[in-house]
Amino acid sequence: MGFVASVRRGGELAKECQGRRQSLPLQFRDRGLALQVVSALAKSGLPAQRLELEVTERLLLEDNDGTLAAMEQLKNLGVGISLDDFGTGYSSLNYLRKFPFQKIKIDQSFIAGLGEERDAQAIIGAVAGLGARLDKVVVAEGIETEEQMKQVRMHGCHEGQGHLFGEPMTAEAVLTQLGTSTTVAQLVA
To answer: Domain limits at 84?
Structure first.
């Protein structure tokens, strides 16, 4: 699904929950990205504050100046920007200083090691502490059990996502689910 179409579908969810979209490096190379986002938001009715774009560290390696300019424009619109899969790939701490991220998402590979691996606990605690000191929301990805949720909370993570909260869904499936008696709190972290 294209960016405009996914934001349009997100507009239908705007009253119920946050819209997330994983961004592709190619989209950030497009100098008209902010204009596309404004257009998509206007057509969908989704408030900019309810749209969150997720970017990976790979994107940051490809065109630092262009990417930074696009991110600043999006941030000024009120769009949230998250650094996805932090801790894998290149994990330069300088990215946290240079780019306007509101969230840091800890990769699920660290969450899977909770309970058995001391280093996973140490890394989660360190990233959560760093995020807190930088005024960033820290999200733990890949939470599958209540015990994992308890541990990431104990280590200072603000939000969680994973199968514990529900399976990944299309926009249509979320709309259907919201039409039932299930509450939004049961669907998202």
So the answer is: 3-187
Which one, of 16, 2, 10, 71, lies nearest residue 43 by Cα?
Answer: 10
Q: What is the CATH number of the domain that holds 181?
A: 3.20.20.450
Cα–Cα distance, 64 to 59 (Å, whole number):
8
At 49, list the tokens: 């504050």
> What is the C-alpha to C-alpha distance for residues 182 and 189, in angstroms, rounded to an integer?
14
| pLDDT for the residue 92 | 73
**Phi, psi angle pair for 166, to nearest 5°:** 145, 160
CA gap 139, 122 in Å, rounded: 16
- DSSP state letter for 23: P
- Closest to 157 measured CA to CA, from 86, 98, 51, 89: 86
d(CA 141, CA 134): 20
Model pLDDT for residues 88-111, shown as the tens digit of each residue? 766 678 788 888 899 999 999 999
Q: Considering the entire predicted model, what is its pTM?
A: 0.71
Please count the structural domains in the chain: 1
Q: What is the tens place of the pLDDT at every residue in 125-157?
A: 999 999 999 999 999 999 999 999 999 999 999
